[in-house]
Amino acid sequence: MLHALLSAACSFKLPALDLKLPSPSLAEDGRFGGGGYATALRVCADVLSSPNDSGGWRELGTLLHGKGRLDASAMALRRATQIEPLDSEAHVALAEVWLTEVASEEECEWVIATAEEHNAAKGGWACRQPRFAPEGTVANAVRAPDMLVADEPRLLAWLNEKCDHTILPALEAQFGIPARELWLYDTFLLKLGVHVDDDGFGLSFNVLLSDPADFEGGGTRFPPNAFSSEAAVYTPRRGQMLSHYGGLRHASVPCTGGLRYIMVGFVRAERLVELRLEDAAYGARTGEG
């Protein structure tokens, strides 16, 4: 396992576990992310020299997360938890689900109209495999008309303004992570309700764009978990953002009539790796997961 994690961190296959210093040019190569190639080698060397130090494993997990190696990151963080278990008191923020007003009815109408105009010009909405759902899950089999917000410059500009003034400040207040450390890595519009199981390492939000009178059903359901013995269903008002930790298991309540537009977004930050670590550790001790 260690050999595979170190190879992932350094972005190349290690012929053996002995590490060599990189050349100056490679040390400054931005392709390696997380502080560069030299940083990756330093972190790997720390883990090799002190395999029982939780700090080294945690730093390796953070580095792998920044490189998009989420499975490898989780393995490193679980090792850190085995060495130094975390206090369950740190899990309070993970259970919170907030509703925040982020858009007016007029803005919601404009977003829907702009999205329809954009997709009509392309010949219709796409219906792609969900990028947010792992293979083999129920969510992965769902297909719904969708579009990336980044594909429409007017919607992207509107979203960026909302992130600066409403969305990211609200997430900062909810999770205690400074807004400057949060970055939005995916946002899209959907025309139908879909099932989502676990969004993994980040924070999730969705904004209801449709008038609730235009559809029946809908909402987001959170099944019983380590924080609550009862299920809860949230039904935002138009323009409200529902936000929660991505690792909190949840499902979209299907529409039984009409048409619902929602905007879904996923946010990451290095500190979220620590939240995921705490979530995994707490679940292991309570039988959740």
TrEMBL record:
It comes from the Eukaryota. InterPro entries: TPR-like_helical_dom_sf. SUPFAM superfamilies: TPR-like (SSF48452). This is Fe2OG dioxygenase domain-containing protein.
